[in-house]
Write a structure and sequence with these properties.
The complex is a heterodimer. By secondary structure, chain A is α+β, with helices and mostly antiparallel strands. Helices cover 51% and strands 18% of the residues of chain A. By secondary structure, chain B is α/β, with parallel strands linked by helices. Chain B has a single domain, classed as P-loop containing nucleotide triphosphate hydrolases (Rossmann fold), CATH 3.40.50. The chains are: A alpha+beta, B alpha/beta.
């Protein structure tokens, strides 16, 4: 049996203009739904990657090497030695950066207040991979690993009622288990995105902290890879280099952020299903109306010898054509909206605490992934075909004779 | 005797209308031969349209056998009936039933597209038929831009362009004035006499009956007269 696809396409195309207003409204609904899905996807992706980047930037990296037991009881005894000239020589991974740190709990005291903190000895030249690489600093950043000053968060400085240039006392436990106490001058304060990091971390030179605890050791190595896809390889290769240590990826270190990352993928589908689910009934309703209005025409087509399959194909093609037009315009509209939103992002600072809890930055930047656009276009077309099946069934279920009598 | 195109044997058809059985056809027997122009005549409810639809494979009898061009219709599936209608029959409907979004030429061509005829042959055959029916000047107009008579001519062109074995017309004059009806009937007669197209027209219009060379009269679902039969 010959299937006259060209004829059916011509009929489908011209029928789109048969009821201009109705089809325009339908087209508009499809455009708005598709554009809405595109914008929402880009916001969810923005949220997703923001969360991931924040998780990675919060001194985690993509993969981290820790001494066994450090996660349960983080102290200087759960540390390991690292050769001074050590480099992450990972043959199959493009390493963007790495940092070896000493990170231990401590107490910080100003003249007026006392707080519990994470005291972190760093080599400032390695910290491009963490949030320190992008924060605003009031005062000076640490100069090198021998710097004996401290850098603390703005919020902590406010709580301690101190400021840049003043001195603080920090107490922590040395390698021998005895408390060590030392005075530090404040080199600067950092303004992180949200107050959580500002309250938690105090930084000094790595060698300074090693001297203070009397141990030439580090508690962690963070590695950031250039391509996220190479993260498992990096983990495997670091695992080979440090077989007696714990090598963990960011998902294991930040399980909540990892769970949210997975949830965001599901959220994209759920949002798509909600939007398109609502649309599909509108489309189906319009197609049923169109089919019933033209039932005599379908009856005639059947009477003169068009097979039921060709009638189904015609209804499906009509639905697909209008869906296709809506998808193209909708994607374009969505893309323009995302460009507009990306110009500065969406400021969520007034919800700062909630946003911080979700592990996000205060400005949400939409992200448009090509695969999401393909997914939206592909699934929308599938929905268009599915929406056409019931009206098409109505078109072929009625007998040609009955249709001609209407 | 010429080749038999239609054989109806013992055809009966009963409808249920609000649970009341309506006997549209009762034990109808007749044959139609190649080149005949037959009118199925009778008043409303006599069963002429039902009989025409059964011959066209658009309806199935409750009892009896129908054969068109040597093919027994009762044995065919819906898809096979579609193919038979496409390849062997042409239809002229009371309401023209042209596709409004296609031009006159495209309306004539589309049946050939269903048959898979290539574009060049389609164009040439459509042009020839439109010219023969005197509507070649309106080939690019859509049905909405044509008068009733012109639309019916396009419908006839669509029905005969595939050179069917059998042309079935259901009340072809119902929506036409008498002058246009005469033009249409002249056209059908020419097709019948010069091209040997076998025509069966269901009608209650005496003018249509007068153009047909054979008249099968129906009343209450039975054949009450058969005038001008070749077999007779």
């Amino acid at each position: 049996m010959h299937v006259p696809v060209k004829l059916l396409l011509r009929l489908g195309w011209r029928n789109l203009f048969r009821h201009k207003r109705r089809n325009f409204m339908l087209l508009l609904a499809i455009c708005v739904a598709v554009a809405g899905v595109v914008v929402m996807n880009s916001l969810i992706r923005g949220f997703q990657f923001d969360m991931q980047e924040s998780a990675v930037a919060n001194l985690t990296g993509h993969v981290k090497v820790l001494a066994p037991g450090y996660r349960d009881d983080p102290n200087i005894e759960k540390s390991f030695k690292l050769a001074a000239d050590w480099q992450p020589d990972l043959p199959d991974v493009d390493v963007e950066g790495w940092a070896a740190r000493v990170r231990i709990p401590a107490v910080i005291m100003s003249e007026r207040e006392t707080r519990g903190i994470q005291f972190v000895g760093i080599d400032p030249s390695q910290e491009d991979i963490s949030f320190l690489g992008s924060v605003a600093i009031d005062g000076e950043f640490l100069q090198d690993a021998d710097d004996d000053r401290v850098l603390l968060g703005k919020e902590l400085a406010r709580q301690l009622e101190t400021r840049v240039g003043r001195r603080l006392v920090i107490i922590t436990q040395g390698i021998d288990g005895k408390n060590r106490e030392a005075g530090f001058r404040i080199s600067g304060t950092f303004d992180a995105d949200g107050t959580g990091l500002e309250k938690m971390f105090v930084f000094t030179g790595k060698h300074t902290l090693q001297e203070m605890v009397d141990a030439d050791v580090v508690t962690e190595i963070s590695v950031k890879v250039s391509q996220q896809a190479s993260e498992p390889v990096a983990k495997r290769e670091l695992g080979s280099l440090f077989s007696n240590l714990d090598v963990l990826d960011w998902q294991e270190l930040e399980p909540q952020a990892a769970a949210m990352f997975v949830y965001a993928d599901s959220a994209i589908f759920i949002w798509f299903l909600v939007m398109m689910g609502a649309l599909i009934f509108g489309l189906m309703n319009t197609l049923i109306t169109a089919v019933m209005e033209r039932i005599r025409e379908f009856g005639m087509l059947r009477a003169v010898g068009m097979r039921p399959g060709a009638v189904v194909l015609q209804v499906v093609l009509e639905s697909t054509l209008i869906m296709l037009a809506g998808i193209i315009v909708g994607l374009l509209l969505g893309w323009l909206l995302v460009l507009w939103l990306a110009d500065g992002g969406i400021d969520l600072s007034q919800y700062a605490e909630g946003v911080e809890l979700a592990g996000m930055r205060s400005v949400l930047m939409p992200r448009l992934l090509p695969q999401d656009l393909v997914l939206v276009a592909g699934l929308s077309l599938v929905f268009g075909v599915l929406a056409a099946l019931y009206p098409a069934r109505r078109a072929v279920k009625i007998k040609p004779l009955e249709a001609l009598r209407r | 005797m010429s080749e038999r195109v239609v054989r109806c044997s013992g055809i009966s058809r009963t409808y249920q209308e609000e649970s009341v059985p309506v006997h549209a056809l009762r034990d109808v027997d007749f044959d139609v031969f190649r080149g005949e122009f037959v009118s199925l005549a009778g008043p409303s409810g006599s069963g002429k349209s039902t009989l025409l639809n059964i011959i066209g494979g658009l309806d199935r009898p409750d009892a009896g056998e129908v054969e068109v061009a040597g093919i027994e219709l009762n044995d065919l599936t819906e898809s096979e009936l579609s193919d038979l209608r496409l390849e062997k029959m042409g239809f002229v409907f009371q309401a023209y039933n042209l596709i409004p979004v296609l031009s006159a030429r495209e309306n004539v061509e589309f049946i050939m597209q269903l048959q898979g005829v290539d574009a060049a042959e389609r164009a040439s055959r459509a042009a020839a038929v439109l010219a023969e029916l005197g509507i070649d000047g309106m080939a690019d107009r859509r049905p909405g831009e044509l008068s009733g008579g012109q639309q019916q001519r396009v419908a006839v062109a669509r029905a005969i362009v595939t050179r069917p074995v059998l042309l079935l017309a259901d009340e072809p004059s119902a929506n036409l004035d008498s002058a246009t009806t005469k033009e249409l009937l002249e056209l059908l007669r020419t097709l019948n006499e010069t091209h040997g197209v076998t025509i069966i027209a269901a009608t209650h219009d005496p003018l249509v009956m007068s153009y047909a060379r054979r008249r099968i009269g129906l009343r209450d679902g039975r054949i009450v007269e058969d005038v001008g039969s070749e077999a007779a």
